[in-house]
Amino acid sequence: MATSVVMPALEMAQETGKIVSWVKKEGEQIRKGEILLEVETDKAVVEIEASADGVLGGVKSQAGDVVPVGTTIAWILAPGEQVPAEAASAAPAARTMTEQPRPATTAPSSTSTPRSSTAPTTSGEIQISPKARRLAKELGVDISTVRGTGPDGTITSDDISAAAGAPKTTPAAAPAAAAAAGSPLSTVARLMAERTTQSWTQVPHFFLVRDLDATALNELRGKLGPGIEKDRGVKLTHTDLLVAIVSRVLKKHPKMNALWSGQGIQMNSDINISVAMAVTDGVVGAVIPKADSTALADISVQRRDLAERARGGKLKPGDVANGTFSITNLGMYNVDAFNAIIAPPQAAILAVGRIADRVVAVNGQPAVRSMVTLTLSADHRVVDGAQAALFLNDLAEALSSPANWLS
Asked: Of 292, 305, 384, 394, which residue is the catalytic one?
């Protein structure tokens, strides 16, 4: 029996996915679990596995197509089996929205016919991608006033951002920037550039900074690290400890773990920590699910596995999905402190600097302590300064006696 290959939902509130490439070709024999194609979401490029054995057939969407979640894009067929009749008959009417190519095209002729500003269909309905419709609702943009630049005048998310006044690189400027850089952006780099620009221009960030004594954190790592390395074969890191402790503190502050959606604040029952990991040409957020109830050793094992697969480009859809709070640590690069950009729809991200000896006042006297600077970036639509400060206060207290939070 034929098995449909559908565009999967890889993230919260995801409505579309973009096909980056087909790893398998039409007519090729495939086995369950083999990588079938690569799909780009708002956060990363992920590999999609085949859900059955068979032959790939009836491919309806190609690289570059932006396809609504749940849409059938191909079939896995038994040897000699044909594409289901209903799918074959529907194929001519099927339509996926392809984003406007980023590189510049030749300038339009002066005799070109202008495109309709509101891109109506034959039924009078405005053509707009699901992502653009959601963005228009969030930004309060009247889509009837927007000129679509997509195929057949379809309104894209870039059109909505432009109408809302958000900075946007025009197609003509893109190749100039690429030429200046010497080479075009990779998929991951372009995706990171688009997402950080969108977040910085649309999310009302505010920042809180705390300098903390990391002596107890260092001591706990020294105490627990050798045992975890012996039993599980993985080196315990400060990031592992922070994931465990931050997730447990978040249980007291559910709004810090909330998401912002077009309908407002969305509370989450699970605490899924997204850890920023460097990859070639960018950064991805790999998720440790239900970190608040996961043992420290298990967090360490998961973090190492995610990091290795991220560097090898082998992250799976579930590895980057459903993050509710982010941690980014640049201490290993000798960075003292920095402000991080929030990864929507999350409400906050914690930036961690290096742990280093500093001279500080202890009981009115100068003393040398191992100090670390934490910078919390928060979305003012979800939390206010006082709520974020209370969370940071509790986190500071937890880090002063971290063992109590892991027992």
From this structure: 384
Residues of the chain scoring pLDDT < 70: 10-14, 41-44, 86-125, 130-131, 134, 138, 150-152, 165-187
Which residues make up the CATH 3.30.559.10 domain(s) of the chain?
A: 204-406
Q: Give the Cα-Cα-Cα angle 38, 40, 42 (nearest 5 degrees).
A: 160
**Mean pLDDT rounded to a whole number for the chain:** 82
- β-strand 65-68 against 16-22: which pairing, if any? antiparallel
Cis preceding-peptide flag for 84 (omega within 30 of 0):
no
**For the domain bounded by 204-406, which CATH number is listed?**
3.30.559.10
- Give DSSP secondary structure letters for 344-370: TTBSEEEEE---EEEEEEETTEEEEEE
Packing angle of the helix pair 385-400, 238-250 (nearest 10 deg): 130
Contacts of 358 (CB under 8 A, 6+ apart): 368, 369, 371
φ/ψ region of 13 (left if φ > 0, alpha if ψ in -120 to 50, else beta) reads left
CATH 2.40.50.100 fits 3-88, yes or no: yes
Q: How many CB atoms lie within 10 A of CB 339?
A: 12
Q: C-alpha angle 92/125/262, rounded to 5°?
A: 105
Residue of 270, 281, 305, 380 marked active site: 380
Question: Could you give the residue range(s) of every CATH 2.40.50.100 domain in the chain?
Answer: 3-88
- Please confirm, yes or no, whether 380 is among the known catalytic residues: yes
pTM of this structure: 0.66
| 158 three-class SS | helix
Q: Which residues contact 9 (CB under 8 A, 6 or more apart)?
A: 69, 70
Determine the Cα–Cα distance for residues 258 and 252; give it in Å rounded to an integer: 12
Contact status, residue 43 vs residue 30, Cβ threshold 8 Å: no
The β-bridge partners of 373 are: 211
Distances from the Cα of 111 to the Cα of 107, 108, 114, angstroms: 11, 8, 9
What's the gap between Cα 140 and its chain centre?
24
